[in-house]
């Protein structure tokens, strides 16, 4: 990376972008970009690739997408931020040099595409990013990851055993009090706050007791499923699903619940910030 | 959409590979309103740092002491010095900055021109600097001397118009130093949108005007002609230097930089974007309840019960035409409570032109805030800047004699806000008694031509009965007078329709 190239891209920043943050750009230039430069040092024409990478960083910082040069305690702001600051510097060198620029361009477009979708989609992909194996397999990763969340799930039989997972939604928002619950996608749940209209927490439903909150999100619409659903009855410390009783000792009086065809029942209590997720095995 | 299709569709994004280089296709980033909000943020935090947030939204928090009141916004707060010029750009209107030298008046105007896409060099050349020797030719241009010599008839003279005339953003620096005759030429350009020389005309086109004046009262080397002042839609005061800005100023000295050096490319609005935004502003609706509130407020300002015994002439204009002032008649002889009725506080009312400017700026503010309709907060926020020079107070009013109200004679912005706040309270208080009048008016909005003759007779009776009720049940104040004038107007229209049918014409 030549100093002149870096200086030119840096100087252009404030003239092109109103949200330009020179400190963040400098931190990326001296951190992740320097790491990438070291990893690409041995390959020919690495300068063009680095230049391309810095153009993406410039655009990311200037558009307000990249706000940090390292993950914050609450994680990355978006999958695109993570791509630019963490994943590309760490993994671009694994790609054949001839493909690196194309991979950079595609990575940006995928990341920005995610940001145009409802907020939970980006959060969900970001939460699944550990399973991204290679940057040139980004498209496959996204299709594979989004499939279960977006495609109608095969109906569960509800005949096997049931497992219970308890999620504390305080992790998403300190004062969040679960209210109305509905599906936003086949395996994405929207939990609305009981006291603050518009405050929503997304929950990704995953088998194997891997369901997890997606954090505070906005614009989660209602997803309606068709088919036969088991009858649900709440008793003190117990839930009957399709006539089968499941002991849930900590759930004494429920407030609201929703059932997902994929084999999940989520419920909240009148006096708790927690969410109980029952999954059919 | 299938996940595969969705993910594939993202590949057609902004980033492209072009001859081995990564490039971005420029697209409109977000809505136009969002762009103007970013422009506000950039100016307020990076260019002309503005720590004085005097346009507030939300109930917020009111605290402090009698001697030092503190208002904290419940929602967003803005600096009028930055926001009003942006709203002026959105409305293509005329705004004047007032304040002492070096306070950033011309800089702010220059930033607006840069936002509109003009290069800095062109903007600097296009600024018209008012001075006592400014001639018509200096301001507008003129024919080349050679053309004048060669011309055998008027049509042979070709006027070389100054380029600033057709600029999207026009800046007139120190307009109160321009000689009176040249002011008249400026007036026709501002008011009619064209200038004339040697029987040739040039049109200014769609544009936003920014004028500056060092003197708050518009006085300067030459008095500003009244018609020109009247064409200025808003007045913005430049904030004083805040100690917190010293660091920024020191950095600018060290870096030899100025705030108007550039505007980031992602904030620049080409003419088509400005036109689109201006159109979107005009599409922001003003709901009937807000219109009624504004009408009730403005109606009170023009009213004077002592001006005439006839409803139609109970206005301050009647007084002024007779050479009298409000102070002459607004005495204890008028039974209205001077602490409640707003009519006592002003020397005159507001013209329909100013009322339109008020609504238009409020639409722009609602658009800027991302709302589809204007609410009372939008009206309140822009009101002092639109009415600043349009509404003179009546200093003799008993209202201003109270010690707690005397400060309003020096602080016009706060005075206008309290006027509006009182109007809002009155609007709510009068709502129950006005309900039937407004319902009756609503039933007449479709006109009277569609009613049968017996229905017309009944409608006439109900309007007359309602007028009698209003007179009997309410005190004759501005609100009552306004409603009575409205009812009488309906009565006359209904009567005319009935007469037309009876006479067979």
Could you list some keywords that capture this structure?
heterodimer, A: 281 residues, alpha+beta, 4-stranded antiparallel beta sheet, 37% helix, B: 505 residues, two-stranded antiparallel ribbon, 48% helix
Radius of gyration of chain A: 22 Å
- Continuous helix count of chain A: 8
The domain tally of chain B reads: 2
Unreliable runs of chain B? none
The structural class of chain B is alpha/beta
Distance between the termini of chain B: 66 Å
Q: What overall form of chain A do the CA principal axes indicate?
A: elongated
Q: List low-confidence stretches of chain A.
A: none
Helix content of chain B: 40-55%
Give the assembly state of these chains.
heterodimer
As a whole number of angstroms, the C-alpha radius of gyration of chain B is 27 Å
DSSP strand tally of chain A: 11
What fraction strand of chain B? 5-15%
DSSP strand count of chain B: 15
Order of helices and strands of chain A: HHHHHHHHEEEEEEEEEEE
Largest interface: A-B, 35 and 31 residues
Query: What separation lies between the terminal Cα atoms of chain A?
Result: 54 Å
Give the strand order of the largest sheet of chain B, numbering strands 1, 2, ... along the chain. Answer: 8-11-14-7-15
Mean pLDDT, all residues of chain B: 90
Kindly estimate the percentage of residues of chain A that lie in beta strands according to DSSP: 15-25%
Mean pLDDT of chain A: 90
């Amino acid at each position: 990376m030549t100093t002149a190239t870096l200086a030119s891209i840096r100087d252009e920043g404030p003239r092109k972008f109103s949200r330009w943050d020179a400190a963040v750009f400098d931190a990326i230039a001296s951190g992740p970009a320097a790491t990438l430069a070291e990893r690409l040092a041995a390959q020919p024409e690495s300068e063009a690739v680095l230049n391309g990478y810095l153009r993406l960083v410039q655009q990311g910082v200037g558009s307000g997408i990249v706000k940090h040069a390292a993950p914050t305690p609450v994680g990355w702001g978006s999958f695109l931020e993570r791509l630019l600051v963490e994943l590309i510097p760490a993994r671009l060198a694994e790609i054949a040099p001839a493909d690196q620029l194309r991979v950079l361009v595609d990575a940006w477009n995928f990341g920005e595409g995610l940001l145009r979708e409802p907020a939970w989609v980006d959060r969900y992909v970001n939460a699944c990013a550990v399973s991204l194996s290679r940057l040139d397999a980004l498209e496959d990763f996204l299709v594979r990851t989004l499939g279960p969340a977006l495609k109608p799930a095969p109906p569960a039989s509800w005949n096997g055993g049931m497992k219970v997972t308890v999620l504390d939604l305080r992790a998403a928002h300190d004062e969040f009090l679960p209210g109305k619950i509905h599906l936003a996608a086949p395996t994405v749940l929207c939990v609305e706050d009981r006291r603050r209209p518009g405050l929503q927490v997304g929950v990704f439903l995953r088998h194997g007791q891997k369901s997890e909150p997606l954090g505070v999100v906005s614009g989660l619409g209602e997803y309606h499923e068709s088919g036969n659903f088991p009858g649900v009855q709440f008793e003190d410390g117990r839930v009957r699903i399709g006539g089968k009783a499941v002991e849930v000792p900590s759930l004494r009086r429920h407030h609201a619940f929703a059932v997902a065809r994929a084999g999940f029942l989520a419920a909240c209590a009148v006096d708790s910030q927690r969410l109980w997720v029952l999954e059919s095995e | 959409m299938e996940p595969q299709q969705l993910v594939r569709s993202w590949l057609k994004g902004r980033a492209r590979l072009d001859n081995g280089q990564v490039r971005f296709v420029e697209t409109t980033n977000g809505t136009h309103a969002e762009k103007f909000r970013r422009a506000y943020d950039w100016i307020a935090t990076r260019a002309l740092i503005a720590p004085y947030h005097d346009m507030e939204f939300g109930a917020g928090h009111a605290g402090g002491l009698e001697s030092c009141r503190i208002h904290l916004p419940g929602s967003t707060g803005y600096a009028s010095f930055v926001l009003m010029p942006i709203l002026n750009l959105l409305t293509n209107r005329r705004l004047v900055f007032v304040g002492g030298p070096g306070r950033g008046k011309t800089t702010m105007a220059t930033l607006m021109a840069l936002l509109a896409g003009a290069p800095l060099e062109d903007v600097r050349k296009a600024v018209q600097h008012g001075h006592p020797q400014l001639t018509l030719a200096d301001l507008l241009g003129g024919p080349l001397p050679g053309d004048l010599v060669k011309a055998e008839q008027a049509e042979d003279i070709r006027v070389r118009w100054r380029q600033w005339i057709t600029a999207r953003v026009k800046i007139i620096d120190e307009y109160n130093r321009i000689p009176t005759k040249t002011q008249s030429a400026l007036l026709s350009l501002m008011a009619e949108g064209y200038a004339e020389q040697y029987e040739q005309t040039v049109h200014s086109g769609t544009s936003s005007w920014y004028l500056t004046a060092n003197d708050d009262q518009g006085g300067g080397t030459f008095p500003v002609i009244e018609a020109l002042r009247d064409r200025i839609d808003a007045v913005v005061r430049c904030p004083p230097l805040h100690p917190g800005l010293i660091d920024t100023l020191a950095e600018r000295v060290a870096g030899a930089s100025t705030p108007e050096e550039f505007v980031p490319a992602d904030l620049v609005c080409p003419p088509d974007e400005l036109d689109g935004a201006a159109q979107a502003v005009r599409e922001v609706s003003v709901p009937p309840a807000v219109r009624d509130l504004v009408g009730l407020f403005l109606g009170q300002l023009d009213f004077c019960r002592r001006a005439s015994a006839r409803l139609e002439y109970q206005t301050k204009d009647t007084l002024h035409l007779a050479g009298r002032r409000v102070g002459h008649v607004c005495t204890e002889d008028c039974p209205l409570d001077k602490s409640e009725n707003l009519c006592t506080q002003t020397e005159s009312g507001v013209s329909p032109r100013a009322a339109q400017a008020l609504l238009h700026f409020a639409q722009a503010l609602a658009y800027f805030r991302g709302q589809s309709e204007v609410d009372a907060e939008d009206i309140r926020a822009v009101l002092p800047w639109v009415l600043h020079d349009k509404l003179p107070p009546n200093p003799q009013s008993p209202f201003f004699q109270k010690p707690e109200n005397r400060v309003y004679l020096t602080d016009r912005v706060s005075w206008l806000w309290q006027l509006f706040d009182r109007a809002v309270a009155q609007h709510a208080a009068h709502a129950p008694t006005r309900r039937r009048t407004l319902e009756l008016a609503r039933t007449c909005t479709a006109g009277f031509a569609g009613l049968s003759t017996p229905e017309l007779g009944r409608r006439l009776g109900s309007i007359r009965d309602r007028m009698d009720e209003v007179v009997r049940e309410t005190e004759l104040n501005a609100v009552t007078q306004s409603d009575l004038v409205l009812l009488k107007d309906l009565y006359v229209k209904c009567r005319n329709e009935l007469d037309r049918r009876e006479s067979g014409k």
